[in-house]
Amino acid sequence: DSQCGYLCQKGLVDGVITEDSDVFLFGANRVYRHVFSAGSNSNKNVAQEYTYEDIEETLGVNRLQLVQLAMLLGSDY
């Protein structure tokens, strides 16, 4: 996660494909989830895109605050 977040933050990749959203804490700006399960018979598994900007705007927290929240909640970060 940390290497993918770094690559995304430096602009070397467009985004990160993962099922683990803590990649945002490592600097990722764009995350794609359910990519490999998309197209299955379940409508729940449709590829989704999340951006750091959307998280920041919706929750009103910056990256440092996300890290602090993750530590407070006891995530595996």
What does this structure look like?
This protein is of the alpha+beta class. The protein has three helices and three strands; from the N terminus they run H-E-E-E-H-H. The protein has helices at 2-9, 52-59, 63-73; strands at 16-17, 30-33, 48-51. A three-stranded mixed beta sheet has the order 1-2-3. The chain is globular. The N and C termini lie close together (9 Å).
Topology:
Elements: H1 2-9, E1 16-17, E2 30-33, E3 48-51, H2 52-59, H3 63-73
Parallel strand pairs: 1-2
Antiparallel strand pairs: 2-3
Brief sketch in words of this structure:
With 77 residues, the chain is α+β, with helices and mostly antiparallel strands. 35% of the residues lie in helices and 13% in strands. It contains three helices and three strands, in the order H-E-E-E-H-H.
